[in-house]
Amino acid sequence: MIDINIIINAILLMGILGAFSAFMISIASKVFHVALNPKVEAINQILPGANCGACGAGGCTDYAEKAAKGLLPINACRPGGAKVASAIAQILGIEEAGFTHKKAVVHCGANETQRIKRAEYAGIPKCREEELAVGGYLECTYGCLGFGDCYLTCPFDAITMIEGLPKINFKKCTGCGKCVSACPRNIISLEKYDEGKPLYAIACSSKDKGSVTRKICPVGCIKCKICEYKKATDQTPWQTCVEKCPTKCIVKL
User: Fold this and answer.
1) DSSP string spanning 130-146?
2) Looking at the domain 38-92, which fold is it?
3) Which pTM value belongs to this model?
4) Radius of gyration, alpha carbons of the chain
5) In CATH, what is the architecture of 102-252?
6) CA–CA gap between residue 129 and residue 244 (Å, rounded)
């Protein structure tokens, strides 16, 4: 039979040890406490807390420290945008820097019903794994694989997979670049975006000859050069190219 006194003594001993440990930790935290720069704390408070790394730092706290020291620009936080850049400028007492808005753009327009397969893939349903395993199961070696690595990595829920093709919600997209890094075929880029103005893009990344693309993709660029009769500029808008493109691979987003 277990002696009840042994149990009580064990409980008391554990309680004493716990209290002593807590006391020592409390003392140590005060002795070794390193006061943070108040400007760093202020910057950290206004950051969105996404820890996306788009600024080039290892997270929001790291960015706050580097921005306070002038090691990173005050407008590097894409999720925070111009509002956060302005607030950081005020905290640091420096001139406010301009902020260039960027949005993710997908340079492929072929959905899952338009893609011609050269093989069936039965492995892990991830773009990067599929690309590494067999180099792509599609005839087009430049197009979207459709498994949604970009969708899965987006921290702002700005990507929706529609018929196997990522669609970007510009209202939610912060231009963090996570999707750009996630795509093994590099078909997503960050493009300058002016609020209220349309954004045009070429929804094709193929480097194949036009005759090859014509056989394997109904919406790919066939290098016909019809769009080149007038370059898209402020005087000759992209809409002209959209209307002339025979495969409709130049799109208005």
Assistant:
1) HHHHHS-SBS-SSS---
2) 3-methyladenine DNA Glycosylase II; Chain A, domain 3 (1.10.15)
3) 0.72
4) 27
5) 2-Layer Sandwich (3.30)
6) 38
